[in-house]
Amino acid sequence: MIYRLTRSAxxxxxxxxxxxxxxxxxxxxxSRNAAVAPQISEIVDKIEKLTLIExxxxxxxxxxxxxxxxxxxxxxxxxxxxxxPASAPAAxxxxxxxxxxxxxxxxxxxxxxAAKAKxxxxxxxxxxxxxxxxxxxxxxxxxxxxxxxxxxxxxxKLKKMLEELGATVVLE
Length: 172
Description:
Blueprint: H1 2-27, H2 38-48, H3 52-65, H4 72-76, H5 78-97, E1 103-111, H6 116-126, H7 132-140, E2 144-151, H8 152-165, E3 167-171
Antiparallel strand pairs: 1-2, 1-3
Helix pairs in contact: 5-8, 6-7
C-alpha cells in the first residue's frame, strides 16, 4: 500500500510539470508570430482573451464601422440591381439638389401590413448581426433609420428593393 501511495504521489509530481510546460509551450507566441508585426500580435492577443459574446460584438462593430456586408446581401440585391437603371432618372432628381452628398441614411418610414413578413426577412439580411425577432421589432417600430453612411448606389438599391416589397423608404 505504501508503494501505491508513493507511486501515485510521484506520478502527480511528474505529470504536473509536464502539463504546465506543455501549456506554456502552446501559449507561446514566439514560434507562431515570427513574421507578424508587434502591433498585430498585441491585437491578436487581446482578441484571444475575449469571450464568445464579446467576440461577436467586436465582429458586429467592425462590420458596421468598416461597412462590411454579409455575403448573402449581394446575392439578395442582385435581382433589384437589374431593375435599378429604369428607376435611376426618377431617383436622381432629389439627389441633384445636393450634389455634394455622397453618403445617405436609408430610413424605413412605413410598412405595408400585407408585405410585413417579406420586409422583416429583408431587414434581417440588411442589418448584420440581428436575428428574426430583432428584425420584427425593428420593422414594427418604424420610422427608423435602417442604415447610415451608405453610398448613393447602394442606398438606391436598398430603397428600390424595399419599395418593391411594400415599404416606404426615404433617403436622407
